[in-house]
């Protein structure tokens, strides 16, 4: 069973191990979509500018959207993703989406930094 971010009590403690990595598999937040975006223990919790995710068009359910997502899972290599899709690029921000159902944006890649790939911690389901 996977759990939506908003159903997790104290997520910043529950989802992170002592090395700052994800303790659970990170899945697409869409109901019935079981696409794994990141395997457990592959991404590091970081803080970033959440305003970058404020796209005019989004397929992420409104119940998952927060005004300002500032916590993200970071990986430095695209190959670290289990599955991920790319959607539009606006300026230097390339938006990431679910590889199976295209739901997005769930995160972004900053094209000015080849090691900057982040997935919003709230736009995800978790499989412990
Ligand atoms: Zn999906």
UniProtKB/TrEMBL annotation:
Name of the protein this chain belongs to: Uncharacterized protein
Highest taxon of the lineage: Eukaryota
GO terms for biological process, alphabetical: post-Golgi vesicle-mediated transport; protein transport; small GTPase-mediated signal transduction
PANTHER family: GUANINE NUCLEOTIDE EXCHANGE FACTOR MSS4
CC terms in the record's Gene Ontology section: cytosol; membrane
Signal peptide location: none
Record's keyword terms, sorted: Guanine-nucleotide releasing factor, Protein transport, Transport
GO MF term (any one): guanyl-nucleotide exchange factor activity
């Amino acid at each position: 069973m996977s759990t939506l971010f908003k159903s997790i009590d104290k997520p910043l403690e529950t989802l992170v191990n002592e090395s700052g990595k994800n303790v659970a598999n990170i899945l697409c937040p869409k109901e019935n979509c079981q696409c794994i975006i990141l395997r457990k223990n592959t991404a590091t919790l970081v803080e970033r500018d959440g305003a970058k995710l404020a796209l005019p068009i989004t397929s992420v359910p409104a119940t998952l959207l927060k005004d300002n997502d500032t916590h993200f899972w970071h990986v430095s290599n695209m190959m670290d993703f289990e599955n991920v899709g790319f959607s539009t690029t606006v300026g230097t921000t390339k938006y990431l989406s679910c590889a199976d159902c295209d739901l997005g944006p769930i995160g972004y890649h900053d094209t000015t930094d080849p090691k900057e790939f982040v997935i919003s911690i709230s736009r995800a389901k978790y499989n412990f």
